[in-house]
Amino acid sequence: MSQVSRLLECPHCEGPSLLNEWVTYDDVPHPDQGLSPTRYTLLGCGACRQPQLWQDPVKSDDSDKSQRLWPQVAALAQGIPTPITRELIEARACFDAKLYTAAAVMVRRTLEGMCIQQGTTKKALFQALQELRDDGKIEGRLFDWAQALRVLGNQGAHFSEESVSREDAADALSLAEALLNYIYVFTAKYEEFQNRRQSPEKVTG
Question: How many other C-beta atoms are found inside a 10 Å radius of the C-beta of residue 191?
């Protein structure tokens, strides 16, 4: 029997690769359960030989519902608004496709969405970030990071002979995620902690 290959993303090779099917298992539920059969496939990258586990519907017309179960794509923290998450996920997708300039542009869109969601009144991103700083929502190094991401996004958005490097795009994704975590996750956790510490139940004589 000939080996079946698929052209899929390999997280280890960081790009599309031919993955060979090593093992396939069909999970066929009992008819009374009313569930559709599911196929689990262990594939190996033809280039780096690293494995992946995929879940596929057995019905061919549901091929768009295939998903990789392992290695998992790192999820963003809960608490980040869905529209903001969507922008950063698209930035990651651009990076995975080695479209580093596009990734930088999507990071810039993520910052714009964050500023709008935070209620800034300025349309220009530079001024909107300053407004977040003046309101005490970002400060010090976080503000510097945001400005650096804005500048890199501007570089990607306007034609230039200088392209965005892989290293800059990777750093932009990491810094953007750190910024979002601070705004939406850590700040909320700190406020929750402070409120809990200041509640009447914590006051002792």
Answer: 10
Task: Please answer whether residues 169 and 95 qualify as being in contact, where contact means their C-beta atoms are separated by less than 8 angstroms.
Answer: yes
Q: What is the 3-state secondary structure (H, E, C) of the chain?
A: CCCCEEEEEECCCCEEEEEEEEEEEEECCCHHHCCCCEEEEEEEECCCCCEEEEEEECCHHHHHHCEEEECCCCCCCCCCCHHHHHHHHHHHHHHHCCCHHHHHHHHHHHHHHHHHHCCCCCCCHHHHHHHHHHCCCCCHHHHHHHHHHHHHHHHHHCCCCCCCCHHHHHHHHHHHHHHHHHHHHHHHHHHHHHHHHCCHHHCCC
Q: What are phi and psi of 143, to 5 degrees?
A: -65, -40
Q: pLDDT (tens digit, 9 = 90+) per residue, 154-175?
A: 888 887 777 899 999 999 998 9
Spelled out in words, what is the top-level CATH class assigned to the domain 82-197?
Answer: mainly alpha
Burial, 194: exposed, middle or buried (Cβ in 10 Å; 0-12, 13-18, 19+)?
Answer: exposed
Tokens of 198: 């200041």
Cα-only R_g, the chain:
22
Q: What is the pTM of this model?
A: 0.61
User: What's the one-letter identity of residue 53?
Assistant: L
CA distance to 6, 85, 177, per residue, from 75 (Å): 25, 9, 11
**CB-count burial class (<10 Å; 0-12, 13-18, 19+) for 103:** buried
Give 29-46 pLDDT, tens digit per residue: 877 777 778 889 999 998
